[in-house]
Amino acid sequence: MRKKNIVTSEELVRGHQTKGIAIISAITWLFLYNLLPEDFWSKHVASYIPAQVQYITASMLMSSVLLIYFYYSDPLFKRRNSTSDWIKTLYASNLLIEKFGLNLHEANALWFKYLNQWQHKEHPNHSFLKKSHSASYNARLVYFIILISLLYAIVAFLAALYSLKTQINWSFFILSIVFALASFVLYFLNRPPKLKDGILRREPAGVWRSVEESFLQCRSLFELEIVSKCKDVECIVSSIEIGAQKWIR
């Protein structure tokens, strides 16, 4: 099998992360451009480099550092909170836990071995793999934009308060309002679900609805193609191994 027929999950993830850095860099540039005067760079950084170049460079560096930390910590999918608890209820591996009593590690190992087969471009489920990655990373990105916009709103507001000592700078107040509004509007349109005591208290909206749809599609395919056809774990392992030999090896 030729490697060019495989689009790995790592490649899909890198693509979404690159898009995230570009978008957050643009937002950070807007923030820095309106917060810092152009002579800031010549006074405090380097006078021989054009100010716009330094704005862009600073924006990309800040965004890269923040996003790398955010993606590494992955609070939406790895940490314990209402949203991550809800996401875990959508996992296809739950089918193996419920039907065969496997532990989480065993169930995830089998599910991901099956999912990895979808990396082949000619696999009938390849589009579902791409859709699943797109939905989950769009959700991460929107969540981070909400946080970063709120952070920039607070910084701009503090800068506006500080300007009261000398000469009030109304543009800082306007900048703070713009970022605060952007944060709240995005949150309202993409409200995360709220799961409490195993009961869904708030339905997902926006990007979270897309996450729900894509994850449930993957779960349904796993159930239809593998789980429903097997009566024991040995059958599951054998079925997944046959598929792996066809699509991966």
TrEMBL record:
Taxonomic superkingdom: Bacteria
Keywords from the UniProt entry: Membrane, Transmembrane, Transmembrane helix
Transmembrane segments: 20-36, 48-72, 141-164, 170-189
Protein name: Uncharacterized protein
Species in which this protein is naturally found: Alteromonas aestuariivivens
